[in-house]
Each structure stands twice: as structure tokens, then as C-alpha cells.
Amino acid sequence: MIQINQFEEITQFRMGRESRGQAPWNPPGQVFYWTSAYLVEGLLIDTGCPHTAEEFVHALEGRSIKAVVNTHYHEDHIGANYLLQQKFGLKIMASRESIPLIYKVPEIHKYQELIWGYPVPTKVELLPEKIETEHFHFKVVPTPGHCKGHVALVEPAQGWCFSGDLFVSQEPKAIRPEENIAEMAKSMQKLVNLKTERLILFTSLGNVIQDGREALQSCIAYFKDLSQKAKQLEKQGLSAGAIRDKIFGRETVLAGISEGDVSAENMIRAALRAQI
């Protein structure tokens, strides 16, 4: 399924695979998990997941696309790379750390295969520090934390920030084990400090957050508070699981769906490791 929305000069393609009864936790006809791509003046930012690749490429027909940027290497951001190169011969760019990971078959969990699918490995080029279209100038901002090589694209004059998966919500309850909330907080602060009049976040989930600075600052404060609380409870002798139950009440439904790959306990372990 694809939804197409317009925000100022930006076209959003919000997409996701619809359930056909493959999983008891997702009724038929509902999208498993939304992910978004953005097109602005010929620049396409991210390409969705493999399961929606053909539908997405069809939706792009007749539109002017000159270049593509992958904010990072995860399968729900590079899914249509291969078809876009094959059909339109497009130049696709990514960070230095992401390039070799986009050019290999990934090792993914069963839930990732179900929800997003396996991307076809593609060759992509090195992303420069700046990208210019006819009227807009995008700054490439390294924003690690969600994963290595993650970047955000910012148009300072417009205050647009395409933040990939750096920001999901102001108080996220579950993450993957490789995510680093201290690095995420530093990356968020980097965006907050940008000299722009406004900062609108265009997130991978499809949420468009008008007051991006407030949202990022709130999430940074949440990470700091969570880390302090978790460390205090650890000093009292509580395990990571017990700290999770004390702070969050219970494990999230995502833990069961992902076989523990995305969980509240991972968030607690990240909070215990974090130096914020």
C-alpha cells in the first residue's frame, strides 16, 4: 500500500506491506509497519522496503527524479534501489559506512523478512557533504546512533530535516540491541543546534513534526532521565529485566513479534551503557 501526501514542495510516499493473515498480531488489510520516502525537486530520499518496491516505482513514473539518497542501509530504506537503478538508471548515494552494507545480502530476522523483505544488493556512490537541486541546498549531517553511517538531510533555508530513523517518538520504549542512545542523543543535539529559523522533522514513519527542536530536546531529556533511573535501580541490585518491569511495567508487544530483537529490555540495557 502507498499513500501520497504533499507538504510544501515535498512529496511524501508512505508505504508498507499489507497483512493477508500471515501474523495473528496484524489483522488482514492492515499495514505491518509504515515507512516513508520523500521527493523534493528531483531528489529522492530513501526508497522504502522490498515488499513495496514495484508499487513504489510505478508511483514514481512520470515524476522527475535526478538522484537518490539512502539515509542508512536498513532494508526498509533501500528496498527499491535495485528497481530504480534498473528502470531509470538513477544515481544512488549513501554514507561511506553504508555503501558496503547496501552492496551485500543482509542477515535479517524472520519478522524483518515478513514485514519488509530482502533487498537486492546494489552499488551506490559516496554521498557528498552537500547536495544542490535547482532551488534548494541540502546539508548532509552525520547522525549515528540508530546505526552506523546514518545521516540526516537538512535544507537550512527551509528548515526541512529528513531524519531517517534517528527520531521515532519523544519517549521510545523499545529498540534493537545495536542501537546506542548516547550517540542518538548527540546526533539529536547536533540537529537542535543547527542555525535554522525552524526545524521540521520528516521521519521515516511518515510523521511530519512541525516543532522538531522541541521534539528532539524532549527525547534527549527522556534518554538522560531513563539512564539515570536505570543506573540507580541497578545499584539497588535489580537485573535489567527487573528494571524494565519497574520502569515500563512490562515488556512491549514488539519483543514477541521480533523474538526479542526489538524490546524494552534492550532499551534498559542501552540506558545502563549510556554516558549521557
Furnish the topology, listing elements before pairings.
Layout: E1 2-7, E2 10-15, E3 35-40, E4 43-45, H1 53-60, E5 67-69, H2 75-78, H3 81-88, E6 91-94, H4 99-102, H5 110-115, E7 125-126, E8 130-132, E9 137-142, E10 151-155, E11 160-164, H6 181-192, E12 200-203, E13 208-209, H7 212-235, H8 240-248, H9 253-257, H10 264-273
Parallel strand pairs: 4-5, 5-6, 6-7, 11-12
Antiparallel strand pairs: 1-2, 2-3, 3-4, 8-9, 9-10, 10-11, 12-13
Helix pairs in contact: 6-7, 7-8, 7-10, 8-10
What can you tell me about this protein's structure?
This protein has 276 residues and is of the alpha/beta class. It has one domain: Ribonuclease Z/Hydroxyacylglutathione hydrolase-like (Metallo-beta-lactamase, Chain A, 4-Layer Sandwich). It has ten helices and 13 strands. The strands form two sheets. It has a seven-stranded mixed sheet, covered by helices on one side. Helix 6 (181-192) packs antiparallel against helix 7 (212-235).
